[in-house]
């Protein structure tokens, strides 16, 4: 069975400081992992994904995430937050060889940026 | 190019009424997914299509919910005898193929309010 846990429902950082959004997963098989971002009144947009290639994945807008199998984690980071990063972020897990019904979204982390 | 579009963007209806929500996927994408997102939660899988057929409808909550994709492109999610608990944002996504590794491209959603 698969599951994904986003450890913080809300994270607040100052502009220009690092961002860390935490995600832990559980998967019986080889997982694919994704981070999506949702801005208010906008559709979900893919930030980055891991599908069993390089464990450090770089995405759009300066975000990156590292797949750590030993820790079952896929935390999202960015060195310097920008006001435009304020949004809801979702960690997603799926099995590489399964159907769509096995795609599981986390409950989301709301990122706020202080001026 | 054009992304996934959903109409209407907002729908207000009365308890017991019938509603239809439409999704236009990205041209050429064979897989189409419907999700439901309640306030403060991540998207929850409802159903997905591979071409014209519903490959997995295990997420539909009950038989009041039904979806079609007759020509393998546009899809309609139909809800009969709506209940207040059906109020949520309904998201549609498409991908070139179905599978755990594939990126899904999301529409902006339809916000359904049942009074």
Describe the structure.
The complex is a heterodimer of chains A (115) and B (115). Helix content of chain A is 0%, strand content 53%. With 115 residues, chain A is mostly beta strands. In chain A, strands 2, 5, 6, 10, 11 and 12 form a six-stranded mixed beta sheet that branches. A four-stranded antiparallel beta sheet of chain A has the order 3-9-8-7, with no helix packed on it. In chain A, strand 10 (87-95) and strand 11 form a beta hairpin. Chain B is built from no helices and eleven strands. In chain B, strands 2, 4, 5, 6, 9, 10 and 11 form a seven-stranded mixed beta sheet that branches. In chain B, strands 1-3-8-7 form a four-stranded antiparallel beta sheet, with no helix packed on it. With 115 residues, chain B is mainly beta. The mean pLDDT of chain B is 93. In chain B, a hairpin with a 2-residue loop joins strand 5 (44-50) and strand 6 (53-56). The chains are: A mainly beta (115), B mainly beta (115). Chains A and B meet through strand 5, strand 6 and strand 10 of A and strand 4, strand 5 and strand 10 of B.
Layout: helices, strands, pairs:
The complex is a heterodimer of chains A (115) and B (115).
Chain A: E1 3-6, E2 10-14, E3 19-21, E4 23-26, E5 31-38, E6 45-50, E7 56-58, E8 64-68, E9 73-78, E10 87-95, E11 104-105, E12 109-114
Parallel strand pairs in A: 2-12
Antiparallel strand pairs in A: 1-4, 3-9, 5-6, 5-10, 7-8, 8-9, 10-11, 10-12
Chain B: E1 5-7, E2 10-13, E3 19-24, E4 31-37, E5 44-50, E6 53-56, E7 65-68, E8 75-79, E9 88-95, E10 105-106, E11 110-114
Parallel strand pairs in B: 2-11
Antiparallel strand pairs in B: 1-3, 3-8, 4-5, 4-9, 5-6, 7-8, 9-10, 9-11
Short description:
By secondary structure, chain A is mainly β. Helix content of chain A is 0%, strand content 53%. In chain A, 37% of the residues are buried.
CATH-derived topology of chain A:
Immunoglobulin-like
Oligomer: heterodimer
The name of the CATH superfamily of chain A reads: Immunoglobulins
Largest interface: A-B, 27 and 29 residues
Cα gyration radius of chain A (Å): 14 Å
Question: Based on the structure given, which CATH architecture of chain B is correct?
Answer: Sandwich
Main sheet characteristics of chain B:
7 strands, mixed
């Amino acid at each position: 069975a698969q599951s994904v846990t986003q450890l913080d429902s809300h994270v607040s950082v100052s502009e220009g400081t690092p961002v860390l959004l935490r995600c832990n997963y559980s998967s019986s098989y080889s997982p694919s992992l994704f981070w999506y971002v949702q801005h208010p009144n906008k559709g979900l947009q893919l930030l980055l994904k891991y599908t069993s290639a390089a464990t450090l994945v770089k995405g759009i807008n300066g975000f990156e995430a590292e797949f750590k199998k030993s820790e079952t984690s896929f935390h999202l980071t960015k060195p310097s937050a920008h006001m435009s990063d304020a949004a809801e972020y979702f960690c997603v897990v799926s099995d590489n060889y399964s159907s769509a019904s096995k795609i599981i979204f986390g409950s989301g982390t709301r990122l706020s940026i202080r001026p | 190019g054009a992304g996934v579009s959903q109409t209407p963007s907002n729908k207000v209806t009365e308890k017991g009424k019938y509603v239809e929500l439409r999704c236009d996927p990205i041209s050429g994408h064979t897989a189409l997914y419907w999700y439901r997102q309640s306030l403060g939660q991540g998207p929850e899988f409802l159903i997905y299509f591979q071409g014209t057929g519903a490959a997995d409808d295990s997420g539909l909550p009950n038989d009041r919910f039904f979806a079609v994709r007759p020509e393998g492109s546009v899809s309609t999610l139909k809800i009969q005898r709506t209940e207040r608990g059906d109020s949520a944002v309904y998201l549609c996504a498409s991908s070139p193929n179905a599978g755990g590794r594939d990126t899904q491209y999301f529409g902006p959603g339809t916000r359904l309010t049942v009074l």
